[in-house]
Design goal:
alpha+beta; 9-stranded mixed beta sheet; about 35% helix; about 20% strand; Cupin_8; sequence-specific DNA binding
Length: about 425
């Protein structure tokens, strides 16, 4: 396994007072070559810390899926049906709107592939359903399959690390998307305000991306996000050409979509893609900010019930339903990720990722510093004391912060103070 680490100069910058959600007046979308893994630290700062998107060329062409799931640039329908034919999958009809999404249904994978093969051979007829297989947990359901290698640029993935280490939770954020020409995804920002990456195995995608803050012009007078920027849901005059990016992603390329960047995506050809949503030290603050904002929205929605018993607990249940995570789950997530790094540092061990990469000392220390910063905000929330889980914790956040302080200061005291400033 190759070791990935953060250079000391990059470590200092990453710990500086840099707000990745304050987007500069002039920003650009970069297409970059797939550099060797020793360039990790540069990518870490320029794209993850700075929350800046890019496309990485020639990143996925050597994967097993790229080599065997396609024939002459098109899906290998027969092989895919033989491998996964009996799987149950969720598909969306891109011609039927259901509230602010597409109407979905379950299908047997082989039935979907038969539909797709005929639909494509018939030149994508306008009078038929346009079905898109989305959010398929293929790697969770077929763990022995060799499909792809997580690019080193995206290997610091706390979200999937957590779920892969807790198989009893039966969840993850590793997905496969498959769909014919003309399938598309409505305008959205990703779950938890997470990062995402998407690799094209075959086909082309067109992406329209908006940096954080631009969503204000993408909403109607009621505050609802536009469903489709093509349908007059958003006035073209409201969209600044300098504050949006249209890019085409070719086969073998991987796109990085940072936290809080809204996007709409179209498949311009029969397309297969592999995607991760992910969280790490570079965007955990954005995730916390989004979690807290969603709780405030919930509390406002049910403010007329504030006198009811267990109102704070009820708000947490609603937060779990709308956001996908509540305060208890957020803390247990951070506690697991942080404790794992403390143990590896104390045992002088590298931390493995996706059985391909390993993280060095500075990387784990950076993770701990960022977890501590968020925990200090977390314990400042008045409603914590109203939640039963908080009083029942064997390792409350105040104690955990002390553990982080002791570990980080023990390693960095000779070179840095805890806030990352050179001594």
């Amino acid at each position: 396994m190759e070791v990935l680490n953060i250079d000391k100069s990059d470590f200092n910058f990453a710990l500086s007072e840099f707000d990745p959600l304050i987007v500069e007046d002039e920003i650009g979308f970069k297409t970059i070559s797939n550099q060797p893994a020793e360039c990790y630290s540069n990518f870490f700062v320029e794209h993850l810390v700075k929350n800046q998107p890019c496309i990485i060329k020639a990143c996925a062409q050597d994967w097993t899926s790229s080599q065997h799931w396609t024939i002459s640039g098109k899906p290998n329908y027969t092989l895919l049906k033989d491998k996964f034919g009996s799987a149950q999958v969720s598909v969306s009809d891109c011609k039927v709107k259901y509230y602010n999404a597409h109407q979905t249904k379950s299908m047997i994978f082989s039935d979907f592939m038969n539909y797709w093969e005929k639909y494509s051979s018939d030149c994508w007829p306008a009078n038929e359903a346009c079905l898109y297989l989305k959010d398929w947990h293929l790697m969770k359901n077929f763990p022995t399959e060799s499909v792809y290698v997580v690019p080193y640029q995206f290997s610091s993935d706390w979200l999937n690390e957590y779920y892969m280490d807790h198989p009893h939770l039966d969840d993850d954020y590793r997905f496969v998307y498959m769909g014919p020409k003309g399938t598309w995804t409505p305008l959205h920002a990703d779950v938890f305000t997470s990062f995402s990456w998407s690799a094209n195995i075959c086909g082309k995608k067109k992406w329209l991306l908006f940096p954080p803050g631009e969503e204000r012009v993408l909403k109607d007078e009621c505050g609802n996000l536009a469903f489709d920027v093509r349908l007059g849901d958003v006035s073209a005059s409201d969209i600044s050409p300098n504050r949006s990016f249209t890019v085409v992603q070719e086969p073998g390329e991987v796109i990085f979509v940072p936290s809080g960047w809204h996007h709409q995506v179209w498949n311009e050809d029969d397309t297969i893609s592999i995607n991760h949503n992910w969280i790490n030290a570079c965007n955990i603050h954005q995730v916390w900010t989004s979690l807290k904002a969603n709780l405030e929205a919930v509390k406002k929605e049910v403010s007329d019930c504030q006198d009811m018993d267990d109102w704070f607990e009820h708000c947490q249940l609603m937060l779990k339903s709308t956001f996908g995570m509540n305060y208890e789950e957020f803390y247990r997530f951070l506690f697991y990720i942080g404790t794992k790094r403390i143990e590896h540092l104390n045992q002088n061990e590298l931390l493995s990722s996706f059985q391909t990469w390993k993280f060095g000392r500075e990387h784990m220390l950076y993770d701990l510093v960022k977890i501590k910063e968020v925990l200090l905000l977390f314990i400042d929330c008045d409603e914590l004391v109203e939640l039963p889980f908080y009083s029942e914790l064997n390792n409350p956040p105040e104690f955990f912060i002390n553990d982080i302080n002791n570990t980080v200061n023990g390693f960095l005291s000779s070179e840095y103070d805890f806030d990352g400033n050179c001594l």
